[in-house]
Specification:
The chain has 293 residues and is an alpha/beta fold. 58% of the residues lie in helices and 14% in strands. This is Peptidase M50. It is a multi-pass membrane protein. It is found in: Membrane.
Length: 293
């Protein structure tokens, strides 16, 4: 459900969060529901503010029960340092709000029922989002830490798989707590939605990888210099296999050998990407015009 536009970004309330607010209303604790809404909103606006400061495009914000999703340009994923800064902004905002809440308590600006819930909500959102699992903030930091060693696609698969594992654990624990009467439906719903969101992140991995390949020319034009990574491939290896180990923020040179290990020539990453886009993933790399050393 679209709530409006704030800081120039469209703001949406996820159906699960709306249902959770409904449960708060039925239980007679809507005030706590609104506190949770405000905490999640400020968490996401911290992401938006940090992304804007770093020059990253922000398209929309969707508020979820466990923190929300701020949708940004794909260039953020291709810059691990920026992704870490933007991801950390949300939990950092929650920590700052906890400190402000404690200060307000010490100055007598305190509500006996909502004040402790405000602190609890901030700590819970910050701690939950630090789990190293997509789509949570910790998952984005984990993916960024992997991006220097593997492709964006593989890094996203690993972080999203952890998200699915954590989601299953939350569902199982939530079901047990519901059966024993310790928890309500909110924990179970949160786990189900986390699984859905992690699966959606996993499905986006191939598109992020294609964005990485397509954006490499623009990246080197923008920064001027990139570290070089060398690879060796046999001439009959298809282009689709050649590009799999390509990393963001590195430029690749591929030395091509025949089956007798004799040197045939080399190709730059740009030439391989052009060849892949023109001829498809199945073209053997040796069919492209090779450069002698």
């Amino acid at each position: 459900m679209r709530l409006g536009r704030i800081m120039g970004v469209d703001l949406y309330l996820n159906t699960f969060f709306l249902a959770l607010l409904g449960l708060f209303f039925v239980a007679g604790i809507l005030g706590k529901g609104l506190v949770a809404f405000a905490v999640v909103l400020l968490h996401e606006l911290a992401h938006v503010a940090c992304a804007r400061y770093l020059g990253v495009l922000v398209t929309e914000v969707e508020l979820l029960p466990f923190g929300g999703v701020t949708r940004m340009g794909s260039e953020l994923v291709l810059d691990p340092v920026k992704e870490v800064y933007v991801a950390a902004a949300g939990p950092l905002c929650n920590v700052i709000m906890v400190l402000l809440g404690l200060a307000m308590k010490n100055y007598g600006l305190w509500h006996d029922e909502l004040g402790p819930f405000f602190l609890q909500c901030n700590l819970l959102i910050a701690a939950f989002n630090l789990l190293p699992a997509l789509p949570l903030d910790g998952g984005r930091v984990y993916r960024a830490s992997l991006a220097g060693r593997m492709s964006i696609k593989e890094a996203t698969y690993r972080a999203a798989t952890l998200g699915q594992v954590f989601a299953v654990a939350v569902v199982l624990l939530g079901s047990l707590g519901l059966f024993l009467g310790f928890t309500g439906l909110d924990i179970l719903f949160t786990g189900l939605f986390l699984f859905f969101a992690a699966t959606r992140e996993r499905g986006m991995a191939p598109y992020l990888f294609m964005g990485q390949l397509a954006g490499k020319k623009g990246e080197i034009l923008r920064v001027g210099v990139l570290p070089v990574q060398s690879l060796i491939a046999l001439e009959d290896v298809p282009l689709g296999k050649i590009v799999k180990p390509f990393l963001p923020q590195k430029f690749h040179l591929v030395l091509v050998l025949d089956r007798q290990w004799q040197y045939k020539g080399f190709l730059t990453e740009a030439q391989i990407i052009d060849g892949l886009l023109s001829h498809g993933v199945d073209l053997p790399v040796g069919r492209l015009p090779l450069h002698p050393l």
